[in-house]
Amino acid sequence: MSIAPSALPEPSAHPVDPLTGTLGGATGSYEKRLEDLAGVYADAGAFDAACAAQPGRIVYRVEDVRPAAAAGDLIFGTTHMEPGRIGREFFVTRGHIHARANRPETYYGEAGRGVMLLESPEGQTRILEIAPKVIVYVPPLWIHRSVNVGDTALVMSFCYPSDSGQDYDVIGRSGGMAVRIVASDDAGGPGWKSVTNESYRPRNTDEIAAIYATQD
Ligand code: ZN
Questions:
Q1: Which of 39, 105, 134, 148 has its CB 3.0 to 4.6 Å from that of 154, i.e. a possible disulfide?
Q2: Ligand 1 is a single-atom ion; what residues have CB below 5 A from it?
Q3: pTM exceeding 0.90
Protein backbone atom coordinates (compact mmCIF):
# COMPACT_ATOMS: atom_id res chain seq x y z
CA MET A 1 0.00 0.00 0.00
CA SER A 2 1.51 3.30 -1.07
CA ILE A 3 0.06 6.38 0.60
CA ALA A 4 0.44 9.94 -0.67
CA PRO A 5 1.21 12.67 1.88
CA SER A 6 -2.19 14.19 1.14
CA ALA A 7 -3.91 10.94 2.18
CA LEU A 8 -2.02 10.23 5.41
CA PRO A 9 -4.40 8.20 7.61
CA GLU A 10 -5.40 9.59 10.99
CA PRO A 11 -4.55 7.46 14.08
CA SER A 12 -7.49 6.48 16.27
CA ALA A 13 -8.21 4.85 19.65
CA HIS A 14 -11.12 2.44 20.22
CA PRO A 15 -12.29 1.45 23.71
CA VAL A 16 -13.48 -2.15 24.10
CA ASP A 17 -16.12 -3.10 26.66
CA PRO A 18 -14.79 -6.52 27.67
CA LEU A 19 -18.17 -7.82 28.81
CA THR A 20 -20.35 -6.75 25.88
CA GLY A 21 -17.75 -6.53 23.11
CA THR A 22 -18.96 -3.04 22.24
CA LEU A 23 -16.21 -1.35 20.23
CA GLY A 24 -15.94 2.43 20.24
CA GLY A 25 -15.82 3.89 16.75
CA ALA A 26 -16.80 0.65 15.03
CA THR A 27 -17.54 1.18 11.35
CA GLY A 28 -19.36 -2.09 10.76
CA SER A 29 -21.11 -4.96 12.50
CA TYR A 30 -23.03 -8.12 11.80
CA GLU A 31 -24.88 -10.80 13.73
CA LYS A 32 -25.24 -14.51 13.21
CA ARG A 33 -28.43 -16.15 14.34
CA LEU A 34 -28.92 -19.82 15.09
CA GLU A 35 -30.78 -20.29 11.80
CA ASP A 36 -27.71 -18.99 9.93
CA LEU A 37 -25.74 -21.98 11.26
CA ALA A 38 -27.86 -24.75 9.73
CA GLY A 39 -25.77 -27.81 8.96
CA VAL A 40 -22.99 -26.85 11.37
CA TYR A 41 -24.06 -29.05 14.31
CA ALA A 42 -24.10 -32.84 14.51
CA ASP A 43 -27.49 -33.13 16.20
CA ALA A 44 -29.93 -31.88 13.53
CA GLY A 45 -32.95 -32.68 15.71
CA ALA A 46 -31.62 -30.64 18.61
CA PHE A 47 -30.75 -27.83 16.19
CA ASP A 48 -34.29 -27.73 14.78
CA ALA A 49 -35.76 -27.79 18.28
CA ALA A 50 -33.51 -24.93 19.40
CA CYS A 51 -34.49 -22.83 16.37
CA ALA A 52 -38.18 -23.52 17.01
CA ALA A 53 -37.88 -22.71 20.73
CA GLN A 54 -36.08 -19.40 20.21
CA PRO A 55 -36.51 -18.11 16.65
CA GLY A 56 -33.96 -15.48 15.73
CA ARG A 57 -31.71 -16.28 18.68
CA ILE A 58 -28.39 -14.48 18.19
CA VAL A 59 -25.31 -16.70 18.58
CA TYR A 60 -22.63 -14.10 17.96
CA ARG A 61 -22.11 -10.48 17.01
CA VAL A 62 -19.05 -8.94 15.39
CA GLU A 63 -18.11 -5.25 15.40
CA ASP A 64 -15.12 -4.05 13.43
CA VAL A 65 -13.11 -1.13 12.10
CA ARG A 66 -11.92 -1.28 8.49
CA PRO A 67 -9.71 1.75 7.85
CA ALA A 68 -8.83 0.69 4.28
CA ALA A 69 -9.36 -2.35 2.07
CA ALA A 70 -5.96 -2.14 0.42
CA ALA A 71 -3.12 -4.52 1.27
CA GLY A 72 -0.89 -3.23 4.03
CA ASP A 73 -3.66 -2.10 6.39
CA LEU A 74 -5.50 -3.94 9.16
CA ILE A 75 -9.05 -4.87 10.12
CA PHE A 76 -9.69 -5.13 13.86
CA GLY A 77 -12.72 -5.66 16.01
CA THR A 78 -14.54 -7.67 18.62
CA THR A 79 -16.70 -10.76 18.71
CA HIS A 80 -19.31 -11.43 21.40
CA MET A 81 -20.53 -15.00 21.51
CA GLU A 82 -23.43 -16.29 23.60
CA PRO A 83 -23.06 -19.44 25.69
CA GLY A 84 -25.12 -22.40 24.60
CA ARG A 85 -25.16 -25.90 23.20
CA ILE A 86 -26.89 -27.89 20.51
CA GLY A 87 -27.17 -31.28 22.13
CA ARG A 88 -23.72 -31.86 23.63
CA GLU A 89 -21.99 -29.55 21.15
CA PHE A 90 -21.04 -26.03 22.19
CA PHE A 91 -21.98 -22.93 20.23
CA VAL A 92 -19.44 -22.23 17.48
CA THR A 93 -18.79 -19.55 14.90
CA ARG A 94 -19.25 -20.55 11.30
CA GLY A 95 -15.48 -20.57 10.86
CA HIS A 96 -13.38 -19.89 7.78
CA ILE A 97 -10.02 -19.82 6.11
CA HIS A 98 -8.80 -16.53 4.72
CA ALA A 99 -9.53 -16.16 1.01
CA ARG A 100 -5.87 -15.25 0.70
CA ALA A 101 -4.97 -18.22 2.86
CA ASN A 102 -1.53 -17.00 3.89
CA ARG A 103 -2.96 -14.10 5.90
CA PRO A 104 -2.73 -14.61 9.70
CA GLU A 105 -4.91 -13.37 12.58
CA THR A 106 -4.71 -12.77 16.31
CA TYR A 107 -7.47 -13.19 18.89
CA TYR A 108 -7.27 -11.70 22.39
CA GLY A 109 -9.49 -12.98 25.19
CA GLU A 110 -11.60 -10.27 26.84
CA ALA A 111 -14.16 -12.30 28.83
CA GLY A 112 -15.41 -15.85 29.14
CA ARG A 113 -13.84 -19.16 28.28
CA GLY A 114 -13.36 -20.44 24.78
CA VAL A 115 -11.51 -22.70 22.44
CA MET A 116 -9.98 -21.83 19.09
CA LEU A 117 -10.35 -24.83 16.84
CA LEU A 118 -7.81 -24.86 14.01
CA GLU A 119 -7.36 -27.19 11.06
CA SER A 120 -4.66 -27.29 8.40
CA PRO A 121 -5.51 -27.87 4.73
CA GLU A 122 -4.17 -31.42 5.17
CA GLY A 123 -6.53 -32.03 8.09
CA GLN A 124 -4.31 -31.61 11.14
CA THR A 125 -6.20 -30.32 14.19
CA ARG A 126 -5.03 -27.89 16.86
CA ILE A 127 -7.14 -26.86 19.85
CA LEU A 128 -6.11 -23.81 21.86
CA GLU A 129 -7.88 -22.49 24.95
CA ILE A 130 -8.57 -18.77 25.07
CA ALA A 131 -9.44 -16.79 28.20
CA PRO A 132 -9.02 -13.19 29.35
CA LYS A 133 -5.53 -11.81 28.67
CA VAL A 134 -4.58 -14.68 26.36
CA ILE A 135 -3.58 -14.00 22.76
CA VAL A 136 -4.14 -16.82 20.28
CA TYR A 137 -2.11 -16.64 17.09
CA VAL A 138 -3.76 -18.11 14.00
CA PRO A 139 -0.89 -18.65 11.55
CA PRO A 140 -1.27 -18.37 7.78
CA LEU A 141 -3.14 -21.27 6.11
CA TRP A 142 -5.09 -22.51 9.15
CA ILE A 143 -8.89 -22.80 9.10
CA HIS A 144 -10.23 -21.33 12.36
CA ARG A 145 -13.46 -21.45 14.35
CA SER A 146 -14.26 -20.15 17.85
CA VAL A 147 -16.14 -22.23 20.41
CA ASN A 148 -17.72 -20.90 23.60
CA VAL A 149 -17.07 -23.67 26.16
CA GLY A 150 -18.12 -21.54 29.14
CA ASP A 151 -21.47 -20.63 30.63
CA THR A 152 -21.04 -16.89 30.07
CA ALA A 153 -20.44 -14.81 26.95
CA LEU A 154 -17.11 -15.33 25.20
CA VAL A 155 -15.73 -11.95 24.15
CA MET A 156 -12.57 -11.62 22.08
CA SER A 157 -10.88 -8.91 20.07
CA PHE A 158 -9.19 -9.76 16.79
CA CYS A 159 -6.93 -8.28 14.13
CA TYR A 160 -6.03 -9.44 10.62
CA PRO A 161 -4.66 -7.99 7.36
CA SER A 162 -7.24 -5.94 5.47
CA ASP A 163 -6.85 -7.93 2.23
CA SER A 164 -7.40 -11.34 3.88
CA GLY A 165 -10.99 -12.00 2.86
CA GLN A 166 -12.88 -15.05 4.15
CA ASP A 167 -13.79 -18.37 2.57
CA TYR A 168 -16.72 -19.51 4.73
CA ASP A 169 -17.49 -22.56 2.61
CA VAL A 170 -14.17 -24.31 3.17
CA ILE A 171 -15.59 -26.08 6.23
CA GLY A 172 -18.90 -27.04 4.64
CA ARG A 173 -17.17 -28.54 1.59
CA SER A 174 -15.49 -31.06 3.91
CA GLY A 175 -18.62 -31.91 5.90
CA GLY A 176 -17.42 -29.79 8.81
CA MET A 177 -14.14 -29.72 10.69
CA ALA A 178 -12.41 -32.97 11.64
CA VAL A 179 -13.40 -32.66 15.29
CA ARG A 180 -16.28 -31.24 17.27
CA ILE A 181 -16.07 -29.70 20.76
CA VAL A 182 -18.65 -31.20 23.11
CA ALA A 183 -19.48 -31.02 26.81
CA SER A 184 -17.58 -33.41 29.05
CA ASP A 185 -18.44 -34.48 32.57
CA ASP A 186 -14.95 -35.82 33.28
CA ALA A 187 -14.13 -34.98 36.90
CA GLY A 188 -11.39 -32.35 37.14
CA GLY A 189 -11.47 -31.75 33.40
CA PRO A 190 -12.06 -28.50 31.54
CA GLY A 191 -15.73 -29.31 30.87
CA TRP A 192 -15.17 -29.98 27.19
CA LYS A 193 -13.56 -32.57 24.97
CA SER A 194 -13.02 -33.08 21.26
CA VAL A 195 -14.74 -35.90 19.41
CA THR A 196 -14.44 -37.13 15.85
CA ASN A 197 -16.83 -35.53 13.35
CA GLU A 198 -18.33 -38.54 11.60
CA SER A 199 -19.39 -36.40 8.62
CA TYR A 200 -15.87 -35.14 7.90
CA ARG A 201 -14.41 -35.73 4.43
CA PRO A 202 -10.67 -34.94 4.25
CA ARG A 203 -9.67 -32.59 1.42
CA ASN A 204 -8.16 -34.30 -1.60
CA THR A 205 -4.86 -33.24 -3.14
CA ASP A 206 -6.56 -30.88 -5.60
CA GLU A 207 -8.53 -29.18 -2.82
CA ILE A 208 -5.38 -28.80 -0.73
CA ALA A 209 -3.45 -27.38 -3.69
CA ALA A 210 -6.26 -24.91 -4.37
CA ILE A 211 -5.88 -23.50 -0.85
CA TYR A 212 -2.12 -23.14 -1.17
CA ALA A 213 -2.63 -21.48 -4.58
CA THR A 214 -4.51 -18.55 -3.01
CA GLN A 215 -1.28 -17.19 -1.54
CA ASP A 216 0.23 -14.01 -2.92
ZN1 ZN B 1 -10.12 -15.14 10.24
A1: 148
A2: 105
A3: yes
